[in-house]
Amino acid sequence: MILASMASMASKPLKTAKLKAGLYREEWPRIRAVTIRGVDFFQCDGRPHYQRKTFSSLVDARKQAEKWESTRTRYGTAGRYISEKDASRFAEALDLLAPYGVTVTDAARYYAKHLDLEKLRASSKPVADALLEWSQSYETKDRDSRTLKEIKYMAGVFTRTFGGLKLNDLTADLLLKWVDGYETMPGKPAKPQTRANFRTKLSQFLNFSKLKGWIENNPLLGIKVERPPRASIEIFDVKQVLRIVEAADRNKSREIVLPYAVICLFAGLRPNSEAELLEWRDINFSTGDT
After folding, report:
1. Radius of gyration of the chain (CA)
2. Total count of domains within the chain
3. Which helix (H) or strand (E) holds 92?
4. Cβ–Cβ under 8 Å, residues 104 and 94
């Protein structure tokens, strides 16, 4: 009965002037009696880190003070600097991370890095624009027409495939998967040498982008290009050479085809990268040298 009577008295507004100036808790957070618009309350003062809260019951005011004090106990002195809402979120974060044995700081750093990458990806240069600049850069260099044609072709292939992406979207896994699955025609996989050429040119393009400051690293750097073994060298016998010369001599474009075939056969020039680049002025007719 006595306890019930005391609890009932504690839940009612104060009546005496003596309690208006009373201090019911001296340590932080403090509890004091206040009068607002003629009504007496108990005020829990958590400043400067929390707002003041008023209660009609001293019991409720003490509960609030104990809650704030518990926050400080759980989180150290930093508990005085975080709101109740943030403290609840912090406790929830601890529960989520507990099974993985990592701290809230670890999680925050990981997520901050993720946000940095997202920001970098959003501001990254479009692949199509980078490829265009890469291709155009060769036009200002002293390169033969065959190289310029090859770069333009490669840039076109890469643009059709990756043109809608940003440079930071180009990961090693993405690029290698595309190269390994490239088909010259539907259902016809590219030859090993073709795939090796694609990887080489992609790496050159990414190095160009790095030098321009568009990406931090070349994702293909350090990945070894597995080039197919070279085919064994075959030597024509006399009969085979004779057949080639006779066929060139009978060709409608004999004045072009015959010299081309003879130079390839007897000067030892490679047809694509050497013989095709020759002009008549490169041949010394007095000595027969090229």
Report:
1. 41
2. 4
3. helix 84-97
4. yes
Considering the entire predicted model, what is its pTM? 0.48
Give bridge partners of residue 43 from the DSSP assignment. 32, 54
Domain of 25 in residue numbering reads as: 2-82
- Is there a contact between 104 and 92 (Cβ–Cβ < 8 Å)? no
Nearest CA-CA partner of 134 in 161, 167, 164, 165: 167
Residue 281 in this model has a pLDDT that exceeds 90: no
- Helix boundaries (H) for 125-181: 127-137, 145-162, 172-180
Establish if 75 belongs to a structural domain: yes
Write the pLDDT tens digit of every residue in 167-177.
999 999 999 99
Residue 45 within a domain: yes
- Tokens coding 32: 């004091």
Same structural domain, 159 and 199: yes
Is position 199 within any domain? Answer: yes
Cβ neighbour number for residue 60 with a 10 Å cutoff? 16
